[in-house]
Amino acid sequence: MTKEIELTQGKVALVDDEDYEELNKYKWHTKRDSKRWYAVRTAREEKYKAPVYMHRQILELEYNDGKMADHINRDGLDNTRSNLRVVDFVESNRNRGGYKNNTSGHKGVSWFERNKKWDARINLNCKLVHLGQFTDISDAVEARKQGEIKYWTKEK
C-alpha cells in the first residue's frame, strides 16, 4: 500500500507504508528541477543547511556522495521503493525523456533534412553511434530499439 505526504503548492508525494512514519516527521516542500517536481526538506548541519531529497533519504544516499537516485517512471513525486533505484550518471540519462525540440516524438530518431530521411542514433560511452537512415519513421524507431538492446544491454 502507498500513502500520501502533503507538500507545498498543493502537491503530494507517494511513499510506501513502511517509509511513511519516518518521512512524515519532517516538513517537506516541493522543488522543481528542469521538468520534474521533487519532495525536499532542509537539514541543518553544523555550519550549513543541506537539501535532503525524499527519494535519496528513502534509498539512504548521503548528500554529495556521487550516487544518483532515479525515478523509473520519471515522476519525481512517486517515491515508492518499486519506482526508485540507485544508478550511475549514464543510466540516469538513458531514462530521460526526449528533448523539447524533438520532432519525431521518439528518443534517438530525428529528421535529416538534407537526405529527406529519418536518422537513428544512440549514445555509447559518450560517443554517438549512427544506426542508419530510413525512409519510414517506424524503421528508424525499430533500429533505435535494436541499438538499445545491442549496445546498452551488453555494457552491464
Features:
single chain; 156 residues; alpha+beta; Homing Intron 3 (I-Ppo) Encoded Endonuclease, Chain A; GCC-box Binding Domain; 2 domains; 3-stranded antiparallel β-sheet; 4 helices; 37% strand
Describe this structure in words.
A hairpin with a 2-residue loop joins strand 3 and strand 4. Helix content is 22%, strand content 37%. The mean pLDDT is 86. It has helices at residues 17-23, 54-58, 89-94, 137-152; strands spanning 2-6, 12-16, 29-33, 36-44, 49-53, 68-71, 84-87, 109-112, 117-124, 127-134. The protein contains four helices and ten strands; from the N terminus they run ββαβββαββαβββα. It has two domains: 2-93, Homing Intron 3 (I-Ppo) Encoded Endonuclease, Chain A, CATH 3.90.75; 100-152, GCC-box Binding Domain (2-Layer Sandwich). With 156 residues, it is α+β, with helices and mostly antiparallel strands. A three-stranded antiparallel beta sheet has the order 3-4-5. The protein has a three-stranded antiparallel beta sheet with strand order 8-9-10, covered by helices on one side. A two-stranded antiparallel ribbon has the order 1-2.
Structural class comes to alpha+beta
- Please give the count of helices: 4
Strand order of the largest sheet: 3-4-5
Q: Report the order of strands and helices.
A: EEHEEEHEEHEEEH
The mean pLDDT is 86
- Could you name the ranges where pLDDT drops below 50 across 5 or more consecutive residues? none
Beta-strand content bin: 35-45%
- Counted beta strands: 10
Rg measurement, Å: 19 Å
Termini separation: 32 Å
CATH architecture of the largest domain: Alpha-Beta Complex
Number of domains: 2
CATH topology of the largest domain: Homing Intron 3 (I-Ppo) Encoded Endonuclease, Chain A
* Biggest beta-sheet profile: 3 strands, antiparallel
Task: Give the CATH class of the largest domain.
Answer: Alpha Beta
